[in-house]
Amino acid sequence: MDGIIFDVDGTLWNSTDVVAVAYNRIISENTDLTVRVTPDDLKQLFGKPMDVIFATLLPSLSYGRQCALAKMCFAQEHAELEKKPGTVYAGLEEALKALSTKYPLYIVSNCQSGYIELFLRKTGYGKYFKDHLCFGQTGTSKGQTILRLMRENGLKNPVYVGDTQGDADACREAGIPFVFAEYGFGSAENPDMRISCPMDLTTLFLNQP
Length: 209
Fold this sequence. Notes:
- The protein contains ten helices and eight strands.
- The chain is an alpha/beta fold.
- It has two domains: 4-14 and 88-205, HAD superfamily/HAD-like (Rossmann fold), CATH 3.40.50.1000; 16-83.
- α1 packs across α2 (39-45), α1 (16-30) crosses α4 (63-83) and α3 packs across α4.
- The radius of gyration is 17 Å and the shape is globular.
């Protein structure tokens, strides 16, 4: 194994409470829709490409209008998270610190551009990660985004840690093992490995030769 790639939402932190506030503000101020987004809604949707999320949340609007509102939501989301960051999972920094002594760590997410950078800045965890890539930069499936990050960093045998079936599918597309974070937002069928908390990763990987 030559690296560990992480998802963000549901794996490294939970920002759904804050993001729901941001999305609802934009929807209420810029449309006449009665739609209101809940944190539970976002937990079901996070991990999907951003265009799919907004098509699901705002199905009555045209694709162009969905895209316009998405951009506004992202800007508001970042502003809200600057004031009140998401909640990192217990033991995460301890796990990252230990793992980074043996393996290079990376992030691949289906999020918008700037979101991973915000996560790293607000948590102070940028020192643990070598590189990151997201849907906002690539516009491709998560599997293809993983493969691009692997190519750009010379990775041959990494693992991916995520919390949804979409993450599991992306790992199959990329041909790498999937570690399912059971504490996250979703479910996954037949993962290669499971963890119930971030520190479980140290048990899995730090005793390997």
